[in-house]
Each structure stands twice: as structure tokens, then as C-alpha cells.
Amino acid sequence: MSAPKTGDQIIRHVLVVDDSRAQRRVLVSTLTRYGFEVIEAETGQEALEILHATDIDLIISDWMMPGMDGLSLCQKFREMPRDRYGYFILLTSKSDKGAVAQGLDIGADDFLNKPVNPEEMRARIAAGDRILRMERELNEKNRLVSATLSEISQLYDALDRDLIEARKMQQALVRDRLREFEASQVALLLKPRGHVGGDLVGTFAAGPGYVAIYAIDVSGHGIASALLTARIAGYLSDGAPAQNIALEHDGDCYCAKPPHEVALALNRLMVSEVKSDLYFTMTLAYFDHATGRVQITQCGHPNPAVIAKDGSVAFYGHGGLPIGLITDATYDSFSLDLEPGDRLVLYSDGFTESRDTEDRELEETGFGTFLAKNADLPAPEFFEALTWDLDCFLEGSDLQDDLSCVLLDYRGPKAPT
Fold this sequence. Notes:
- This protein is an alpha+beta fold.
- It has 2 domains: 6-141, 3-Layer(aba) Sandwich (Rossmann fold), CATH 3.40.50.2300; 173-410, Phosphatase 2c, domain 1 (4-Layer Sandwich).
- The protein is 38% helix and 23% strand.
- It has a 6-stranded antiparallel β-sheet. A 5-stranded parallel β-sheet has the order 2-1-3-4-5, with helices on both faces. The chain has a 5-stranded antiparallel β-sheet with strand order 8-9-12-13-16.
- β8 (199-205) and β9 form a beta hairpin.
- α2 runs parallel beside α3 (70-79).
- The longest helix is centred in the middle third of the chain and has 55 residues, at 118-172.
- The N and C termini lie far apart (117 Å).
């Protein structure tokens, strides 16, 4: 019989346990010839001491021994903490099924009848080797999976921390959530679906007697959309009028360019400089405090709403083309006249395109109902009520898109002093 190639084997170290010195010598001689490193023990207690001190792959133990028998040794072996599985073969003259079942119950892997046939022993060791090989391979794969999951978890935690900071920075783009002007008040709502989002709202002084408000929704979600909103916020900055693409200096002060020209300029920038697959919708409006007139450019954004002083709601607009999608897109403007007590609302489609559990869309009609229901609420409570009503519509399910809204309250021009 040829010896096995030990380099291909998982089983290398074998412990032979038998109170018969002659039987041990036969087994040790055969196993050594097969290429195994063999240790022998006369008693179960001696075997336990060896097992605590030495890494053993296979135990071949006689069942019937004085003191600790093979079954008890097997049980003690299974209770030992080990990094790897050890294969256990019981030598026995027992042939009844009850004894075999008891041995399997305790944790024996296989049995050899005495006197031991070398060929049968070799075959049963080979079977054990295959099992241990699969166990070691699974352990290695599990180790690799665990290590990979740990790395992914660390990366996720780092990304999560970065996204939390990014959310703070994006929220900081909307610095003043409630601003007072000479004849109006402007309130802003920005509620991303995730850590960061693609919506942006804002306001800036648009020359003497004018205030500009805008609502923007960048296509897509997540980091890329959020980065684009940050860039757009720089183009419409209230703190740096010289950098504001909507303003021009006429020699005395900064005044607003017509809103449709601002849309054209932003479209050129998106197409020629940003060169991204992203695009955005926008509503940009200039409000004249003296007259209550609003000049609006709508670029694919939802129709602006006016909540009249009596609580009725009307929507105005014609859609228009998004910005950054079509190279030679054109834009125009339309005007609205607000009366004192009226409220102008710009909002994202995160409201109107939300769907309930039966896949019904809220649409403009449903959103108009929300606006009318909460028409008299002050700005902060107004936004809270809108998001509460939307949550009720969604029946508690998560937001499906970012939410943003601008509310302009027109109080009327101040009386001359």
C-alpha cells in the first residue's frame, strides 16, 4: 500500500488511545507508515492532557478502557474550546445500532471494528480528511467574509459620518429659514429624504424694493445632486452679490436681471462648464414690495401656488424646460399680482408626486387641499402641518423624495410716515 501525500492532507497529527500496548503499537506503526505524526496515550485521562497541550487533527480511541472510556473521552473532547474541528473515530467490538447511535450522539464521527483492518482505517481517515478539508475551507471563507464585512462596516461608518457632516453643510446653505423684509416675510423648508438631497431653496435681495425667492430640484438623489446644489447656491448667493449670477451692478447698486435671462445663463453654465448628466428644475421669482407684483420664470418646476387672503388656493404656470438638459433651451416669464394677506408658495415635486400605499399620487389637487387646510397658520407651523399631512397621506411610510418649500407672506406696503 502506498503512503499518502501528506502535503495534500488536512489530517497530520493523530492521537491513538488504547489501554492495550500491543494494539497501540500496531496502530502507531501503520499510521506512521502512512505519513502521519502519531502520539499515543494509554488512558483517557492521559489523552485529555495531551489534547489540552497539543493540536490534534484526529483521535482514534478504543471504546472500552478502564477509568475514562472512549465515549467519555469523546464527550470531554467535544467540550474543549477549539479553533478547528477534530475528527474522532471510536474503536469498538460493539455492533448493535443502539451503541452506534449513542456514540454519534456523544460526538463520534466514525467507528472502526476491532481487530482493525488497515485498508478500512485508511479509507475512514480519508473520509475524515475530506470533511476536515471542507470545514477548514468554510472557516477560511467565513474569515474572509467577516474581515470584508468588518472593512465594509468601517467604510460605512466613515461614510455615514461624512454624510452627517455633509447634511449639516447642505442645511447651512439655507441660512435664514425666516426672513423679514419691508413688506413681506419669507420662510424656507428643506427636508432631504436621506442624509443629503438635491433640493435647494433660498432668497436674496434683488435690488431696492425687491426680494428674490427660488426653489430648485436637481435630478437624482444623494451626493452628486447635493454637490450640484452647493454649486448652484454659490451662483445665487445672498452674501456675495458680485458673485450672484442674477444680479448686475448699475453703477449705484446691484439690481436683478430679468428672471428668464438668469435661467438662460444657468443653462449655458450647466451645458458648457458643469457638463454633468444631472439637470435641475427651478422656479425663480422677484417680488416688488411696493406693488405686490411677482415676476416668475418657471423651468420645469411645479406650478407656483397662491393662497389668497380668504384661504382659497390657485396654481399658476406653464411648466417650462429644465435647466442643463437642452443646449438651446429658451425661457420666458409671467407675472402675478398679490394682494396684502396673500401667500406665494414655491415647492418641490416631493409633495405632489408622493404616492400612498395604493399607489395613488397626491398631485396638485391633493397638495392644494393641504395648502387650503393650513392657510392661516404662521410659517413654521404651516410647514409642520404640510409635512404632517403628507405623512398621513403616506400612512407612515418613508418619504419618497426630498421636500422643499418657499412661503412668501405679503403684508402690504408700509404706510408712509
